Amino acid sequence: MQPQFLFMVVLSAFVSTGRGQQSLMEYMERRIVLLEERLTQWHDQSSRQSAELREFKNKVLTMLENIDKDKDAWRNEMENTNIRVERLEREVDYLETQNPAPPCVEVDEKLTELQLNKAQKKKKEKYEKLTDCSDAISQVTAMKILKRFGSTSGLWTKDPLATSDKIYIFDGTGNDTVYVYPRMRDFTLASTRKAARVKLPYPWIGTGHVVYGGHLYYIRQQNEFQVIKFDLSNKTVVDSAVFPVEQQVPVYGLSSFNYIDIAADEEGLWAIYATKENEKNICLAKIDPLTLGIEQMWDTPCPIENAETAFVVCGAVYVVYNAKLPSRSRVQCIFDASGTMPGEDLPLVYFPKRYGAHSSMKYNPKEKQIYAWDDGYQIIYKLGMKAKEES
Question: Where is the signal peptide (predicted)?
Fold first, then answer.
């Protein structure tokens, strides 16, 4: 006989008796009571957990509200701090204007007898001006940050004698490829993929190069420093010349990569340099753009220490100084090769503090503005000009 059939027979006999029915009912009641207790426990636990979740949600919402309030408070605090910093910078500008440090300019009394004798021997008395240029910088009237491009050091410039608006970009302090953009807007909006590339026959050194009259004048270092004249239209070297100075040293104390800085102004081309013979002060030379010959040379009273760059305007070199920990750049030394700029009451020109230190400043005499490279940012400074007065 099968076990399942035997079990069914026994269960039927048990249920058929009254005692069996009573036992089954009691068993079912116990099971139902047990289920009800479990349902009650589950309900209690569910209610408790729901209450805890609601409490946690309320706490989170409160915390988020507090975070939003703190965020608004921090934002307001930062805005107030920025306003105070800007106000402080304006006050510092005013104080610097009212109480400027004594500018380092050409003053005969400040030159030693040895320097005077040396200057006379080298026939460096005064520079015969080529034009009637009589402009001097009075202040920086505006600043425009174009973009951030390339390395922390470099230069960008335009050809002041050209009719086109081409922009020339020299990325880094040693390279052999110049990026050329057809106009300012293209440089601002486009990447290097949209730029034309000019491959130079020799790599450049430093950031002291200019584009002038369709030619690139740049510095090359082999055994000696050379000035290379490169025709940008047919991509050929037109001329080159060894710079006729021995034992050169970096011309700017804060820009050790520059030994010669070529500058262009209303008068033509200039070279700003330094030598071991006169290692404390910056020197200036007038360059013939056709032959690369040196027309005249001067020892300026402008210190090399803490200088970061320089530029020339109407035959006067303006040396820009900073600090080893970058602060506000300022023109603190002016040397006028023609001697027409008076030695007193010369304004100190301050540049707005932005990122770091300028690796180059290229003056454009046609636009009366400076193309600067500040820690990888390309900046334009608009200059306010005034007439020179005879000393």
Answer: 1-20
Does residue 120 have a pLDDT over 70? Answer: no
| Range ranked top by mean pLDDT from 52-66, 85-99, 232-246 | 232-246
Task: Find residue 302's DSSP bridge partners.
Answer: none
Distance between CA 204 and CA 208 in Å, rounded?
Answer: 9
Tally of domains within the chain? 2
CA-CA distance, 154 to 357, in Å (whole number)?
12
Residues 282, 43: Cα–Cα separation, whole Å: 90
Question: What per-residue string of b and e applies to 243-275 under the rule 16 or more CB within 10 Å gives b?
Answer: bebeebebbbbbbeebbbbbbbbbbbbbbbbbb
Average of per-residue pLDDT values in the chain: 84
In a domain, 381, yes or no: yes
| pLDDT tens-digit readout, 362-372 | 999 999 999 99
Contacts of 113 (CB under 8 A, 6+ apart): none
Helix axis angle, 3-15 to 18-98, nearest 10° = 100
Burial of 287 (0-12, 13-18, 19+ CB in 10 A): buried
* Residue bearing tokens 């990325």: 171
Give the domain-ending residue among 50, 80, 97.
Answer: 97
Give yes or no: residues 82 and 189 share one domain.
Answer: no
